[in-house]
Amino acid sequence: MERTKVAETGDRDAEGQHAHTGAFSNRAMTTFSPADEEKRRGVRRMKLTATGLLLFVAVVYVLTKWASHQGAGPWAGYVAAAAEAGMVGALADWFAVTALFRRPLGLPIPHTAIIPTKKDQLGVSLGEFVGENFLSEDVVRLRLRAVGIGSRLGAWLAVPEHADRVTAELSAALRGALTVLRDSDVQAVVGEAITRRADAQEIAPGMGKMLEKIVADGGHKRAVDLIVTRAHDWLVLHGDSVMDAVQGGAPGWTPRFVDRKVGERVYRELLRFVTEMRDMPAHPARGALDRFLTDFASDLQSDTDTRARIERLKGDILGRDEVQDLIASAWTAVRSMIVSAAEDERSELRLRVRASLLSLGARMAADPKVQGKVDGWVEGAAVYVVTTYRKEITSLITDTVASWDAEHTTKKIEANIGRDLQFIRINGTVVGSLAGLLIYTLSRALGA
Question: Where is there biased composition of kind Basic and acidic residues (predicted)?
């Protein structure tokens, strides 16, 4: 149930982000910036110019035809033919340019108003074009290999100022991440991970192997030396306490002087035993301790009852509040230490990171093998992204275009490219006039 709520929340967030992106795209395509308004004014001026040129050749055609009927010379025919072809070219190009954005004269002519009616199909085609020609594996690898990211990045990192900048950015990111993380969450995760890992793995065999190796190497002898030395020193300082303890455990019917003699004898024998054990590396008690530890190490690895007892003891220890508090305090101390080191520009952490970046940059800039590895990693990562998420990347284009309002999209596209399209009308008028003049001239020449 909880996972379902989280999934629903994630879906709502994704829908909200998509709606926000769509709203931003719609605002971008339904509003005109001052630059867009200036472009629209330029388009209107060019439209007037192109239309004026059409009217000019129309007037020239009418006047030359009138002059021809009035008995003007052969020149009138040449000029009329040029003007007539110019009108045809101007009208044809006007139709073609207008058909991109709207229906000429409002007539429902097929294959007109292409942009508003085919906007979504154009978006799909654009997305497919980008996916096939820009997001293919071969193209990505070729472009990245030509860039030489490894050598460029190495040369950039080898500059001390750049290494300082990267170190500062990494430190800021680390501080930010540790600040965002709540101590209680991290402590819970770490505690659960440690507990789960400890529960999943039996520790007795590992402890047995470690103890076996320690005893075989004589590593336990220093611990024994420390214990017996401290025991000797304690007995010397607290002899009265030992004798009182022995006397206090004696039967009530024994005379007190006997209890005192027994206590003194026990104390002397105990002190003698500890002293001999301290001063004699070959003392029998030391040998017995070695055999005990060896047998215990073997039991930890092979004895079922011993291993079960260790597992129960492990569970009891991990379940104690003191252990969980120790984990919590350890994380708090580690976090505080890392944050302090990240904030201090002269801390060992930042100095080591800076030195590592400089060393890495120098190697990347000079070693072709390292450059090849870095280039391979970058190419592999980029190829993985474009091949795995190609559909999502191209859908960003198609979905964005589909979310645009057709009318405002048409106006905005026309504002940006309409001025150049009006030059097509002008060129059509001029080229048509020249073509008409040429055709009329050849016809007259061949007819003659």
Answer: 1-18
**Are 251 and 244 within 8 A, CB to CB?**
no
Residues 211 and 299 in one domain: yes
- So what's the pLDDT on residue 250? 61
The answer as to whether 323 is a domain residue is no
Are residues 25 and 77 both part of a single domain? no
CB 409 within 8 A of CB 116: yes
Last residue of a domain, one of 309, 324, 340: 309
The residues, ordered by sequence, that sit 6+ positions from 301 with a Cβ below 8 Å of its Cβ are: 204, 205, 208, 209, 212
210 sits in which H/E element: helix 204-217
Q: What is the rounded CA–CA span in Å between residue 378 and residue 303? A: 53
Q: Residue 412: inside a domain, yes or no?
A: yes
- Residue 221's domain comprises 202-309
Cβ neighbours of 310 (radius 10 Å): 19
Are residues 214 and 277 located together in one domain of the fold?
A: yes
Q: Are residues 302 and 208 in the same domain?
A: yes
- Residue 76 burial (CB count, 10 A): 18
Local confidence band at 52 (pLDDT 50, 70, 90 cut-offs): very high
Q: What are phi and psi of 201, to 5 degrees?
A: -120, 125
The answer as to whether 346 is a domain residue is: no
- Give, rounded to a whole angstrom, the gap between the first and last alpha carbons of the chain: 96
278 contact partners, CB below 8 Å, separation of at least 6: 225, 228, 229, 232
For Cα atoms 395, 399, 401, give the angle at the middle one, nearest 5 degrees.
Answer: 120
Chain centroid to Cα 368, Å, comes to: 27
Which tokens go with 134? 């820009």
Q: Which of 39, 60, 25 is nearest to 437 (CA)?
A: 60
**pTM: predicted TM-score of the whole model, two decimal places:** 0.48
207, 305: one domain: yes
**Structural domain contains residue 208:** yes
Task: State how many domains the chain has.
Answer: 3
Burial class (CB in 10 A: 0-12, 13-18, 19+), 280: exposed
Write b or e for each residue in 329-350: b if 16 or more Cβ atoms lie within 10 A of its Cβ, otherwise e: eebeeeeeebeebbeeeebebb
Which of 206, 190, 214, 203 has its CA nearest to residue 313? 203
Query: 3: phi > 0 → left, psi -120 to 50 → alpha, else beta; which?
Result: alpha
Q: Which of 36, 37, 57, 38 is nearest to 426 (CA)?
A: 57
Question: d(Cα 267, Cα 284) in Å, to the nearest integer?
Answer: 20
Q: What is the pLDDT of residues 304-363, one digit of tens each?
A: 888 888 888 877 777 777 776 777 777 777 888 888 888 888 888 889 999 999 998 999
Q: Which of 309, 342, 376 represents a domain boundary (last residue)?
A: 309
Residues 78 and 106 in one domain: yes
